[in-house]
Amino acid sequence: MYYSLLAGGKRVRPVAVCLAYDYIAGSPPSDAPEAQLKDHYRDALSLGVSIEMIHTMSLIHDDLPAMDDDDYRRGRLTCHKVYGEDVAILAGDSLLSSSFEYLVREGKASVEPLRLLEVLERLSASVGNLGLAGGQVMDLECEGKPSAEVTLDDLRWIHKHKTGALLNIAVAGGAILGGAGDKTVEDLEVYADKIGLAFQVADDILDCTATSEELGKTAGKDEAVDKATYVRMMGLDGARAEARRLRDEAIQGLGENGGGLKALADFIVNRGN
Ligand code: GRG
After folding, report:
1. Burial class (CB in 10 A: 0-12, 13-18, 19+), 183
2. Which residues of the chain are modeled with pLDDT < 70?
3. GO biological process: what's one of them (predicted)?
């Protein structure tokens, strides 16, 4: 569990929680001392850490021979390569259950109970058949299918669930913990779903333009296994334009304090790994 969780990674989802929290609750001063930052982000980080545990679980399971069968992740050997498939499956399972335990244990002292339950319900839903697991099943089913049999709508469904679900709970959950009402959460979900898709378009582009060293995982995997990707469907230039379009649409409805969330959308489409 620690081997994979502490291997690095960009921590995009915890950052998204904190930025959505700030969008509602206000940002701390830029020169705030660490103790003040810890206090400000206490509730947001309960969720951020818990989502990062789920994300890491999904990477461990995704890399297993029965799924994508990868040897490298986050710049080091994958969990099953070091500890064996049996332990890797169990490490993933334990990260999943620990994530819920962590959220409730850390959150219950300060978060209003109904808000915590709302976040917990959304977090649980993000993992199941209409979240990570459902998206992954559809992705596996489309692998190897001729391009003509996979539509752009299929691809969007896969990535809304497989990649977008955790960004949705990160943004919506951060906002709920910050005190947002239903309408604001709904509006922010539009932002989250757009950056979730943009994240995956950027991932597909990087898979065929970046090196394995830059990515910390095997590059060029999508083409090798004939995966349905935005690049395969739209070409490289088309995918780049799609990422920019999604980024523009995502930030459209943000209010004047949306600087942090806008910067996150920019990072997601311009990242180098
Ligand atoms: C076991 C219930 C259960 C669910 C897991 C394996 C699986 C089902 C889903 C796979 C989900 C998956 C791996 C989606 C890919 C999302 C993605 C683009 C990951 C890369 O995220 P980054 O770039 O990685 O943020 P770092 O390492 O930076 O954190």
Report:
1. exposed
2. none
3. isoprenoid biosynthetic process
Q: Where are the beta strands (DSSP E) in 1-107?
A: 72-73, 76-77
Q: Report which protein residue has its CA nearest ligand 1's atom 7.
A: 58
Ligand 1 atom closest to the Cα of residue 163 is 16
Write the burial class of residue 13 (CB in 10 Å: 0-12 exposed, 13-18 middle, 19+ buried).
buried
| CA 30 – CA 259 distance, rounded (Å) | 14
- Return the amino acid letter for 102: Y
Q: Are 50 and 102 in contact (CB under 8 A)?
A: yes
Backbone angles phi, psi at 128, to 5 degrees: -85, -145
174 touches 17 (CB < 8 A): yes
Reduced to 3 states (helix: H, G, I; strand: E, B; else coil), residue 111 is coil
CATH number at residue 216: 1.10.600.10
Counting ligand 1 atoms within 8 A of each CB, the residue from 63, 163, 195, 218 with the most, and so the one to mutate, is 163
Separation of alpha carbons 120 and 271, rounded Å: 30
What residues make up the domain containing 146?
2-270
Distance, in Å, from the CA atom of 46 to the CA atom of 113, rounded to the nearest integer, reads 14
The number of folded domains in the chain is 1
pTM of the model: 0.97
DSSP-assigned letter for residue 147: G
Tell me which amino acid residue 124 is.
S
Predicted pLDDT at 72: 97
